[in-house]
Structure prediction request, 213 residues.
Amino acid sequence: ISKELPSPGCLGISKELPSPGHRGLNRKKKTKTNGTIYNYNAKTLNGSRSVSLREYMGKTVLFVNVLNALHKEMKDYGFTILGFPSNQFGKQEPGDNHEILASLKHVRPGNGFVPNFLLFQRGDVNGDTEQGVYTFLKNSCPPVGDSFGNPTNRLFWEPLKMNDIKWNFEKFLVGPDGKPVMRWFPRVTVDSVVPSLSSRVQASLSVHSGWAW
Prediction:
């Protein structure tokens, strides 16, 4: 397991609970991250088009890797939510892309749930086959936890790195300039996230008042 540290500029919010049997992590040389999310593309869940993340230029964007996260709580806070489902955490998202929406509507969370934010195709957020935008996000922000607990039959990627996403519900906030500004540990509650999001959005509105939202 390797430890990679990002360049400064993004705040990591950690509220990790200790887990027994965690693996240790070896420190590696600090890395420097350049660029923005606008260098990346992603395919929509139904495969109908490839979306350039340049479409979100000038907007505050929240990246989440579970589909029902923060749907009702945050839809009115003036930013865009992008959902990137992954099956790397306990195999909790096993369906094919065409099955995911039906699963959301009828199983989890169910009750006719229809997400009001854009969903992209299921993909990896950690490991050798991780999506490029997630490599960028993770390298831009400090890690928000220093252990994986016991990864046996829970974590499905290799190699494990210090800066990997530890579990579902980890979130990244990207500012209107396309650079990550905050990262939250999976167990940080919605109530804890909302004040930070609100202040970030208001600050961005003040600085970029001429940009579209």
The radius of gyration is 17 Å. The chain has four helices and ten strands. The CA atoms of residues 36 and 178 lie 5 Å apart. The beta strands are 2-3, 11-13, 26-27, 41-43, 50-52, 61-64, 80-83, 118-119, 171-174, 180-184.
